[in-house]
């Protein structure tokens, strides 16, 4: 019997570890990036893969922290009423789940032995402070979720290996200088639900961040479009803010944008030519604003497919508002245009106004009611 047990343990020790999924696969599964994003992703730096240590006897006979559930390299301590990070977390942990607790602080030594950590979830706690050296031993951390806490600023000395950072629903009023310095693998940044104004984003805040393709700053206090975000963005979400106008220079540096969300703002004016800097735009949300006419540059966006203009103040539609005069200019037809909730009389619109829309149901109207 002892011989059989010993041979079984030896077999486990030499078993091949499971490999972590590539992060781009993670994005596809969670619909973070567009389905029709560029096929050539060779210019995107692939994050360094987390080395998976071989299974040892310590892995098989570790002590699981109190109130936690442990599997091999996965520790779940969510909804456990914890007021601090539990001690004696197994050193080979790859994923640590501490969400929905009452943790108020991340101390210098709380995570010091977790050298192999890949994902750390601290969502919905009461964290007000993270020690500047709390992450110093983490060279392979890819996912860091700090959403719905009480952090007053971006934590300093974040791991340079991060690919996704979610810090929405905190108390951040300012993105300080070089807040993301050295984070050359960062692809996704979620910062919604913070009291952040446009003036709170310092000009050098994103210096050195060259591969950030997704930013969401929704439900903040932005009064205008930020002009100093990374220039290589594919998706930009600025919905539910206080933006009142779109100026000519607002999108000059974001020429790679595929999806833009400006819905639920207070936009009245869109300066002519301001959207012409977005030649690759596929989808734009302008619904629930105070726009009075169809933006002039839309008809010249060759690849624009989905246009959301409902619940605005548009009272008239001209025959060339959506479609260029030369059909060859438009590379892709519209799959959908929403215009309901506007004071426009749809029976007065010339049918030729939608000549570049695919399908009879591509345009959505509705009864305008005050």
CATH superfamily of the domain at 252-370: Ribonuclease Inhibitor
- Name of the CATH first level of the domain at 252-370: Alpha Beta
- Low-pLDDT runs of 5+ residues are 1-45
Looking at the overall shape, the CATH architecture of the domain at 252-370 is Alpha-Beta Horseshoe
Instruction: Please work out how many helical segments DSSP would assign.
Output: 3
And the CATH topology of the domain at 252-370?
Leucine-rich repeat, LRR (right-handed beta-alpha superhelix)
Shape estimate: elongated
Mean pLDDT, rounded to whole units? 85
Q: Hey, roughly how much beta strand do the residues contain? A: 5-15%
The strand line-up of the biggest sheet is: 1-2-3-5-7-8-9-10-11-13-15-16-17-18
Structural classification: mainly beta
Labels describing this entry:
370 residues, mainly beta, 14-stranded mixed β-sheet, two-stranded parallel sheet, 3 helices, elongated, disordered N terminus
Description of the structure:
- The protein has 370 residues and is mostly beta strands.
- It has a domain at 252-370: Ribonuclease Inhibitor (Leucine-rich repeat, LRR (right-handed beta-alpha superhelix)), CATH 3.80.10.10.
- It is 6% helix and 13% strand.
- It has three helices and 18 strands.
- The protein has helices spanning 2-13, 23-29, 57-60; strands at 69-71, 74-76, 95-97, 105-106, 119-121, 129-130, 143-145, 164-166, 188-190, 214-216, 235-237, 245-246, 259-261, 269-270, 283-285, 306-308, 336-338, 363-364.
- Strands 1-2-3-5-7-8-9-10-11-13-15-16-17-18 form a 14-stranded mixed β-sheet, with no helix packed on it. Strands 4-6 form a two-stranded parallel sheet.
- 39% of the residues are buried.
- The model is unreliable at 1-45 (pLDDT under 50).
């Amino acid at each position: 019997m002892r011989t059989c047990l010993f041979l079984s343990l030896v077999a486990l020790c030499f078993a091949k570890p499971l490999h972590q999924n590539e992060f781009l696969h993670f994005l596809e599964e969670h619909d973070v990036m567009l389905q029709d994003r560029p096929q050539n992703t060779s210019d995107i730096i692939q994050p360094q893969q987390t080395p998976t240590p071989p299974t040892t006897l310590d892995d098989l006979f570790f002590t699981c922290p109190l109130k936690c559930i442990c599997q091999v390299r996965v520790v779940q301590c969510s909804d456990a009423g914890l007021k601090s990070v539990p001690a004696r977390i197994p050193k080979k942990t790859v994923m640590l789940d501490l969400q929905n607790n009452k943790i108020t602080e991340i101390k210098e030594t709380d995570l010091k032995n977790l050298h192999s950590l890949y994902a750390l979830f601290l969502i919905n706690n009461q964290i007000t402070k993270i020690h500047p050296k709390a992450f110093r031993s983490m060279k392979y951390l890819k996912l860091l979720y700090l959403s719905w806490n009480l952090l007053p600023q971006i934590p300093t000395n974040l791991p340079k290996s991060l690919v996704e950072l979610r810090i929405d629903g905190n108390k951040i009023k300012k993105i300080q200088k070089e807040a993301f310095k050295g984070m050359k693998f960062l692809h996704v940044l979620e910062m919604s639900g913070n009291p952040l104004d446009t003036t709170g984003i310092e000009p050098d805040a994103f210096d050195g961040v060259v591969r950030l393709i997704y930013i969401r700053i929704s439900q903040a206090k932005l009064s205008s479009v930020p002009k100093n975000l990374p220039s290589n963005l594919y998706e930009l979400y600025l919905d539910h803010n206080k933006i009142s106008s779109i100026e000519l220079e607002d999108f000059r540096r974001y020429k790679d944008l595929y999806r833009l969300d400006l819905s639920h703002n207070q936009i009245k004016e869109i300066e002519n030519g301001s959207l012409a800097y977005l030649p690759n735009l596929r989808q734009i949300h302008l619904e629930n604003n105070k726009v009075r006419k169809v933006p002039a540059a839309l008809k010249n966006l060759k690849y624009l497919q989905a246009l959301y203009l409902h619940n605005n103040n548009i009272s008239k539609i001209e025959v060339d508002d959506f479609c260029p005069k030369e059909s060859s200019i438009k590379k892709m037809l519209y799959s959908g245009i929403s215009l309901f909730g506007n004071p426009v009389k749809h029976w007065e619109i010339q049918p030729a106004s939608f000549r570049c829309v695919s399908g009879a149901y591509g345009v959505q109207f509705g009864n305008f009611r005050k």
